[in-house]
Structures are given as C-alpha cells and as structure tokens.
Automatic annotation (TrEMBL):
This is Helix-turn-helix transcriptional regulator. SMART domains: HTH_XRE. One of its GO terms (molecular function) is DNA binding. Residues 16-70 form the HTH cro/C1-type domain. It comes from Streptomyces sp. SID12501.
Amino acid sequence: MSEGTSARRRRVGAQLRQWRVGEGLTLQEVADRLEVSLATASRWETGSTKVSLDTYSRLADLYRVDADSRVYFERLCRDADEAGWWTRYGDVISHGFRDFIELESQAVREFVFHTMVVPGLLQTAEYRRAVVLTQGAPDGTARKADVVADMNAARQSILTRLASPFDLHVVMQESVLLHEFDGQPHIMREQRRRLRELATRPNITIQVVPLRRSSHPGSNGDFTILTYGGGEATVYNELLTSSVMTNDPAEVAVYRAAMETLAGDVALSVEDSMGLLDRLLEESAV
C-alpha cells in the first residue's frame, strides 16, 4: 500500500466496521456470507487491503447502508489509490501527518484547539518557517523550513475550495498570540494581521481563550476534529514524535463535547476575540 492512500483505506475500513457492528454481525459471519477468509475480511476493516467496488457494493447491501452514505464511501473506495499533492512532501512530514492531510482533504468542517502555536491553516509562510527552525529538531534546517512552508501554503488552498466548501473553526489560547521569536517581532506582528484578515471570511471562525481561564476541557492538549459530508468524524492528536487518530464514535463524542464547551463557555465570543486581537495589533504597532 502506498503511503499516500493508507488514510483513505483505513477510513473506509473503519466505516465498514461501524456498519457491521451496527448490524450486530461478527467478522466471521461477514466472511462466511461473502465467501472469503476471515483474514481477508479483517484486512478490509484495517485498510491493509483495498476494497473493490463489487465487494463494497455487497457489503453495503449486507449492512443496509443508506443511499447518501453508500455513494460517498463508494467514491472513497474508487479513489483509494489516487495520489494526493501531499505525497510530494514525504521527506519533510511524518507518515501520521500525511494521513491527516489526506483525511483533511475529504472533510467539510474542521475544529482546531491549540495552546502553543497558530494552527497551520492560518499560518503565514514566515511564521511557519520560524516554527520549524525553533522547534529544536535535528533536521530543522533552513531548507526543510522552506519546503514545509511551501507544503503548508498548498494545504491552505482548502480554505478557498469551491467544489466542496470547507469551514474552519479555531479556538486558541491567548498565549499563542503573545509568543514572539527572538529578535524578530515582525513575524508575530504579521501573523496577527493575517489572523485578523482571515477572520473576516465567512467560512473561518476564530476564538481566543483568555489567559485567566486556565482550567478547561482543552487543558490536556491540542486536538483537531475533522467532520465529513456524512457527519462521521476523525479526531487527530499530534504529539512530539508521533500522532494519534481515532474514528471511534464514543471517543469522538468526548472531543465534540470538549469542543462545544471550549467554543460556547470557555473562549471569548468571536466579537470579543477580535477585539483582543485588535488591541494586540495596536500595541505592536507602537
């Protein structure tokens, strides 16, 4: 399996498992009905084997999948081996992040909570370069910083996607807006201006958690929720040397509850968040 298609296959597999469990069927029962080995049926659900359109159709019939979901996941099966633009950057981003970008390209909504840095979809190129160079990674060279910034610019094209409009909702700690890079105050100043500009777009919502609110559902760290056209979702957590993703409905529900609390009860309103950002812009201009 190529690295560029693994996320799509796993997403199809995860959905097949949800449908199967919802119908109260064991994997062995599915294997028997489709006259395949248990190992083959298992590989469909783990994403280690591509599900053919014929097999998908038979499984969708077995699981009594509704028409909209059926069409949506059929497209994913058909396009599972299509390489995306992100495969060009395989030497500078991790396997986990490549999988995330692939899933992000299929989403219609994204919620991001960040505590330390501006989320990638909102970063200026210079801010992105500075983040790479100051993270202390052994391979944090100027060349890598330039390539990663280029990759991030390509990723941001999703914000102006016309074929399938994409909504972004970001909640970030106030401290994210206060961090500066030593000797380069202009980087954060331009980043704040960029945030203010992006916040005027109808598909982008930005809220800020004030410094005085330190105990809340986001205290355990950053997280991202991708929501797809059918309503199902993936939660992504990026760690220092790895990443974790889950499609499990129970786990997704916990993060969605945290999202609602952060956006509705913890963060400033959009209007007050923009007021805070405006004040920071005025102070940095002095």
